[in-house]
Write the structure tokens for this entry.
Amino acid sequence: MLFLGIMASYVARANTSIAVVAMTDAENTNPDFDEFDWSNSQMQYVLSSFYWGYCLTQFFGGWLCKRYGVKITMFFAINICTVACLVTPVTTRAWSWQGYCGLRVIQGLAQGLIFPCMHEHVAKWAPKQEKNRLGAFANSGLELGTVLALGTSGIIASSDMGWPGISYVAGGLGLIWAVIWIIFASNSPSDSKQISEAERKYILSSQDHDSSNKKPIPTPWRAMLTSVPFIVLVATRCSEAWGFTTMLAEVPQYMHGVLGLDIKSNALFSALPYLIMWLMSYVYIITADIIMKNNCLSLTALRRTYNSIAFYVPAAALIAIGFVNEDQKPIAIALITLNIGVNSAATIGSSLNTIDLAPNHAGMQMAFINTAANIIPIFTPLIVGFIVEDESNREEWQIVFIISAIIFIVGNTVYIIFGSTQMQEWNDPNFLKKDDSENPTPAAITEGDTDKKTDDDVKST
């Protein structure tokens, strides 16, 4: 259900890069529907606006899933996003790109709750030896949702449904998921009525933390924010966010402007890299399982190796893409496919690292990381809009791709040197109590001194 929920959310999230092209070029989709005369900068505002809301609710999502549980939090998150999808056509006709931006902000606010929920849920449900497999599988809904959004949106826009159909299909998927989720989901194995007692004991006994504890554990903010492995993880995820969102939001425009692909071909070729990414995610899951079962690498070495594949290969491909022109479409498509397809190794690499460091605080860690990482995509489309004044200018796109490549390289190099999978001491549910006992308050110290002085006075007397 986590896999399907993330898939549905990404269908709603990723279809905009195709939708804005269809809405501003009705001649190549379905001329029976409205066409909007939006500038490239206005389109970039639409693409960017999702992240205006997305980065604001990560902490709120981490708090909600700790306080009220993942079940109800994800249910409302997907439903709010679904309603925003369903009213997109009406709103856009009434308020143009500004209205579309407003709805994208609402979708971002709702979806900001989802990934803290996902990490919190995997930490509670996954046996220790299955964390990589189950976490990566749930996360692979991201790639499939992107494939469905980019692969079908152009076809839907060219059909009798027109560009409004893109939003209606995404909204329908969200509604179906929400109904199934609210019936079958449970916050933890202890709460679930869908599993046997043997499975419940197997999950709970294999974990390094007590996932049956229903009382929220206070977040040790100072310890977490001064932890070197956590700081490095934040920096690494920020660099990955820059490269990935650049490709997600800008590839359709690059293919349309530089390679001259029409909207149908654009959608299919834009989806191809994410199809490979989705399929490759299972290759990485299987190989990581084999490596860990045979003790070929430590978990830290495994994460660093997979993260290097996910960052260094796309960096090289991005630089190469900038030197491809309209006469070399197959090469461009191959490089873009390589770039995005290989990047799914980051799930085994650094994405699930929160569960290693402190499973008791996986949701809050993800909330902080996603807040930081998704401030960056607010500016990415705006920077692209500033650099790329002419969509058909290959030299301008070169600058965009080289910047992303440099960020990829620096981010992973830092992770290789300083990244870790060792469980941190602040994962202990009683960590803050221990900290208080080791550092008593001035009042407590004064009281102790007073008692000591009184005892000495008695002895003297």
